[in-house]
Specification:
Layout: E1 21-26, H1 28-39, E2 43-46, H2 55-67, E3 77-79, E4 82-84, H3 97-117, E5 120-125, E6 129-133, E7 138-140, E8 151-155, H4 158-175, E9 180-185, H5 195-215, E10 220-222, H6 225-232, H7 248-262, H8 268-281, H9 291-310
Parallel strand pairs: 1-2, 1-5, 5-9, 9-10
Antiparallel strand pairs: 3-4, 6-7, 6-8
Helix pairs in contact: 2-3, 2-4, 4-5, 8-9
Length: about 325
């Protein structure tokens, strides 16, 4: 007897392995998946400019990185004792203007290198709702608690999103023709926009993505993280206390559905070894000085060394 409807997922023709170089961009769910990649020691870079929710802002940052368009004083503002940039997350904001610009441009250069070297680009879109700065007449990635009166709120149309996704793919392919794209829609509900408005937002993202993926099957794929949480895990026990974000059980489940279909089966045994080591490293002994614990540490160190001989990039 089945008590859930399982979302079908086709196995990737370009699976991720331990030689892959992954760049993950987008919403907070991209961070959840990025943490999984890091835990299992894949070569992954996640959100160098912080969490970004909408397609247009992601496209803008990709364009900057690919064309190496440096940030200047015209791109930043001072508010609440910090320098901010409307294109990036507030976690990068800084009290010193020169250091802030230096940091932004250093990240820009690193992102250019990461995109150029990547084998897989994973982009998670969160919302179609955007805020447009009235003075600059530009869509922002983050309002940085600037008064709302300075922005107009609007929803991106399917056509606009589709064009933005295509531009993002084209920009990346100018510097990297061999990378593979995995797109997904964040399962996090943006209820602050409204219940109906959140569904409109997700629907526009999904429609636009499928229009693009259908035309780019060889290089693009759609992973149904939103559909898995909405359908397979259709129960509030899979949500965090805010009833909006997936809890750890849901994140773990969606990750399993991902690695079953998008990560090379040849690496599954290595992933189990890495997981075993990670659990051992998290172990807290009753007596750290006991002979048994010293032997445990010695065996653990041997396991780590053996894995690092095969995969030099592994760091525990």
């Amino acid at each position: 007897m089945d008590f859930t409807t399982k979302v079908p997922i086709a196995k990737s023709n370009n699976p991720i392995n331990y030689d892959s170089k992954i760049v993950s961009l987008g919403s907070c769910f991209a961070e959840n998946m990025g943490e999984k990649f890091s835990y299992f020691k894949f070569q992954n870079e996640t959100n160098p400019f912080g969490i970004i929710f909408n397609p247009v802002s992601i496209e803008k940052l990709i364009s900057r990185a690919v064309t190496n368009q440096k940030f200047t004083e015209n791109d930043i503002l001072f508010h609440n004792d910090l320098w901010h940039c409307f294109e990036v997350h507030s976690e990068l904001s800084h009290p010193d203007k020169e250091i802030f610009l230096q940091n932004l441009n250093q990240i820009l250069e690193q992102t250019n290198n990461q995109i150029t070297a990547s084998t897989h680009i994973i982009i998670t879109y969160g919302t179609s709702w955007v805020y447009r700065n009235k003075a600059a007449e530009k869509i922002v990635a983050n309002c940085h608690k600037v008064p709302q009166s300075q922005f107009d709120k609007e929803i991106l149309s399917v056509t606009t999103i589709e064009k933005s996704i295509k531009n993002t793919i084209d920009l990346i392919q100018k510097v990297n023709t061999n990378c593979y794209f995995i797109f997904t829609v964040s399962p996090v509900r943006h209820i602050k926009d409204g219940f109906v408005e959140n569904q409109r937002s997700k629907a526009n993202l999904i429609s636009a993505l499928h229009n693009v993926v259908t035309l780019s099957l060889l290089k693009c794929n759609y992973f149904p993280s939103y559909e898995i949480l909405m359908d397979e895990l259709r129960d509030y026990r899979f949500y965090a206390e805010d009833m909006l974000h997936p809890n750890q059980t849901a994140i773990d489940y969606i990750w399993i559905r991902f690695f079953e279909n998008y990560i090379s089966e040849e690496n599954h045994a290595t992933m189990e070894e890495v997981c075993s080591i990670q659990k051992a490293l998290a172990h807290r002994p009753f007596n750290p000085n006991s002979d048994s614990h010293q032997k445990f540490l010695s065996n653990l160190n041997d396991k780590i060394i053996r894995l690092q001989e095969k995969f030099p990039h592994f760091q525990f």
